[in-house]
Design goal:
Rossmann fold, about 250 residues, alpha/beta, 2 domains, binds adenosine-5'-triphosphate
Length: about 250
């Protein structure tokens, strides 16, 4: 379970995230949407413990990220927009190393080969990470997130650079993680994917939440019956004063 309470992040006087609050419950995939510069990556990086919030509280499985970081991070996996991997490990060593760090070698033994096969990385398992293509690195980063049994998954634009089959496998994998009770927050510009794949979406604009709910709820509250998520998104991000939040 992820809870974000009144999160604010300022960059030297510029407020990138303006007091946002939301939850991602076990067993749901929530899409974090918003135009360029809306504050998605900033919010994600605060939730991942990479950036220190200016104020606010982040609870991961009830552990306060600021005050109980080790326990909070134990349940968290973050796949950044540009994964930073250990280039001089082989693909297999990399996955194994992450599993070791999180004390989940049993998981590595159980599903490591399978994960590599599903992401078309099995044949590359003995190659250095440095020799992988961009999309392959992205797939490895996702595999690393899945190997350590985190139940809160944060994914920043994970589908960029992944081929259609990889994206398909990835979505299947995330659906599986959701069905196993993971809470998943995924930032994306792919509104079609968000509409089909996410249980709920949060739309950010200029650091504020301008809408939150299922697509049906957003349609109803925005008075846009039958509209696509794209149409709702365009309207709400043009009118930042309109607040359409889940009740
Ligand atoms: P995109 O969809 O383009 O990736 P985003 O929603 O992820 O955008 P952020 O990267 O979080 O947006 O940026 C939010 C705002 O904060 C932007 O105005 C950006 O210029 C600003 N910003 C981000 N990082 C910094 C920084 N290190 N210093 C100053 N301003 C920053």
């Amino acid at each position: 379970m992820l809870e974000v309470i009144d999160l604010i992040k300022d960059y030297r006087g510029f407020r990138a995230v303006s007091g946002i609050s939301f939850q991602v419950r076990p067993g749901e995939i929530v899409g974090l949407l918003g135009p360029n510069g809306a504050g998605k990556t900033t919010a994600m990086r605060c939730i991942a413990g990479i950036l220190r919030p200016s104020s606010g509280t982040i609870l991961i499985n009830d552990h306060d990220l600021l005050h109980d970081q080790a326990n909070a991070k134990r349940g968290l996996a973050f796949v950044p927009e540009v994964p930073s991997l250990y280039e001089l490990l082989t693909v297999e060593e990399h996955l194994k190393f992450i599993a070791m760090c999180f004390n989940s070698m049993d998981e590595f033994d159980r599903i490591g080969d399978d994960l590599l096969k599903r992401y078309d990385l099995y044949e590359k398992r003995n190659q250095f990470v440095a020799t992988l293509s961009k999309g392959m690195k992205q797939k490895l980063a996702v595999a690393c997130a899945l190997i350590h049994r985190a139940n809160v998954l944060l994914l920043d634009e994970p589908l960029i650079g992944i081929d259609p089959r990889g994206a398909h496998e990835f979505k299947k994998e995330l659906s599986r993680a959701r069905d196993d009770g993971s809470a998943i927050l995924i930032s994306t510009h792919l509104l079609d994917t968000a509409e089909r794949f996410c249980d709920r979406v949060i739309i950010l604009a200029r650091g504020h939440i301008v809408a939150e709910g299922t697509i049906a709820e957003l349609r109803e509250r925005a008075n846009m019956e039958g509209a696509t998520l794209e149409a709702i998104f365009l309207r709400l991000t043009e009118e930042p004063d309109v607040i359409v939040q889940q009740s």
